[in-house]
Amino acid sequence: MIIPVRCFSCGKPIAGHYEEMKSRMKKGEKLDEIFQHMGITRYCCRRMLLAHVDVMDDVLKYNA
């Protein structure tokens, strides 16, 4: 997993919230409630977490 450590727009640390967001989404919680509980209120930070795509597993298939 390679998620940006900080939001590109405002600089708030966001990497620590990704695993919690992912696990709570699997449990079926609403995204708005998850973000409010974690204290992520800015749209730029929400965008960083929502738009992230895990590509590390795909990249590791190809050896150099």
UniProtKB/TrEMBL annotation:
GO cellular component: cytoplasm; DNA-directed RNA polymerase complex
Transmembrane among keywords: no
Known EC number: 2.7.7.6
Keyword tags: Cytoplasm, DNA-directed RNA polymerase, Metal-binding, Nucleotidyltransferase, Transcription, Transferase, Zinc
Family: Belongs to the archaeal Rpo10/eukaryotic RPB10 RNA polymerase subunit family.
Protein's name in the database: DNA-directed RNA polymerase subunit Rpo10
Subunit structure: Part of the RNA polymerase complex.
Main location: cytoplasm
Matching InterPro entries: RNA_pol_su_RPB10 (IPR023580), RNA_pol_suN_Zn-BS (IPR020789), RPABC5/Rpb10 (IPR000268)
Subcellular location: Cytoplasm
First-tier enzyme category under EC: transferase
Matching SUPFAM superfamilies: RNA polymerase subunit RPB10
PROSITE patterns: RNA_POL_N_8KD
Binding site for Zn(2+): 7, 10, 44-45
Catalyses which reaction(s): RNA(n) + a ribonucleoside 5'-triphosphate = RNA(n+1) + diphosphate
Cofactor requirements of the protein: Zn(2+)
